[in-house]
Design goal:
transmembrane helix; two-stranded antiparallel sheet; TM_pro_TauE-like; mainly alpha; membrane; Probable membrane transporter protein; 4 strands
Length: about 300
């Protein structure tokens, strides 16, 4: 079943796009990531222009996050206070990202920058996540418990002023730390069409020191509102949002997020992280390969 995408100006197989939405929705429910870090490059591989893929993926991530937040909220797995601070930083970051997106588009470098960012970020995160997962699987159970007991927030976080108590996360830290983290996630959301969860979740665990029981739900809460803000800014400034593409992706992602939330409580976490790391590294390698190969058609689609 072919579907015409008016902004991307091409026809795609609707079933393939729906299945892609299901896959990213499952990742959203399992790991607390919006799934955009895979949606955008996979759409690019399929032939969708990078600018349209990034803007439309942010819209799809919003839908997947709504479903995921409800699923985790029922388990009391969302720290709304922490999420509110992250969202505030994310909106500021989205504004800054919109300016960068327009500047890079005017310079004709936005497609290349998107690809380079994906290779760098996915390669780094995939490598670190894969190493940590393998170590966790190979260690004895008592060693894993010993490591978990030592988790604290980063020393730099401790040095920041104006501490607040985040009761649900079990933290007493400055709100400036999650605020700055939210700004970074907001910029990445605008430039790459990602929810930022693949960076936010590890940062919440190892930099902020949050309780693992609320990390996934709080990440999805942040992603929900930041991607909404990014979508509005894309629609008003870059005009690169393809509503048909986003709608077809949403059909699958909302269902996938519910499935992912169920899988998350029944499969060994270390094994899930290893699987995600392998997927991330595979996408990074494919993006790197694409940077070094001359495309079939040497032009870029710039929405009017």
């Amino acid at each position: 079943m072919d579907v015409y995408l008016p902004i991307a100006n091409l026809a795609v197989n609707g079933l393939v796009i729906v299945l892609l939405g299901v896959g990213t929705g499952i990742l959203s429910g399992i790991f607390g990531v919006g799934g955009g870090f895979l949606t955008t490059p996979l759409l690019i591989f399929y032939g969708v222009p990078p600018t349209v893929a990034a803007a439309s993926a942010a819209t799809q991530v919003t839908g997947a996050s709504v479903s995921g937040v409800f699923a985790h909220s029922r388990r009391n797995g969302v720290d709304y206070q922490m999420g509110g601070v992250l969202v505030a930083g994310g909106v500021v970051g989205a504004l800054l990202g919109a300016g960068l997106f327009n500047l890079l588009t005017a310079l004709g470098q936005i497609d290349t920058v998107i690809s380079i960012l994906y290779v760098a970020l996915l390669g780094t995160v995939g490598s670190l996540m894969g190493r940590e997962s393998l170590q966790a699987l190979l260690r004895k159970e008592d060693a894993a418990k010993k490591r978990a007991a030592k988790r604290r927030h980063h020393p730099l976080v401790s040095s920041l002023p104006m501490r607040w108590r985040f009761y649900r996360s079990g933290l007493y830290i400055s709100p400036l730390a999650p605020l700055l983290l939210g700004v970074v996630i907001g910029i990445l959301t605008m430039l790459m069409g990602v929810g930022g969860g693949f960076i936010l979740v590890p940062a919440m665990l190892y930099i902020l020191g949050m309780s693992a029981s609320v990390v996934v739900g709080t990440s999805l809460f942040n992603i929900l509102f930041v991607t909404m803000a990014a979508t509005m800014m894309h629609a008003l400034t870059t005009k690169a949002v393809d509503i048909v593409l986003a709608g077809v992706l949403l059909l699958g992602s909302v269902v996938g997020a519910q499935l992912g939330a169920k899988i998350a409580v029944s499969v060994k976490p270390e094994l899930l992280r290893l699987m995600l790391a392998l997927i991330v590294l595979a996408v990074a390698l494919r993006m790197a390969f694409g940077l070094g190969v001359q495309p079939d058609e040497i032009y870029s689609v710039v929405p009017l």
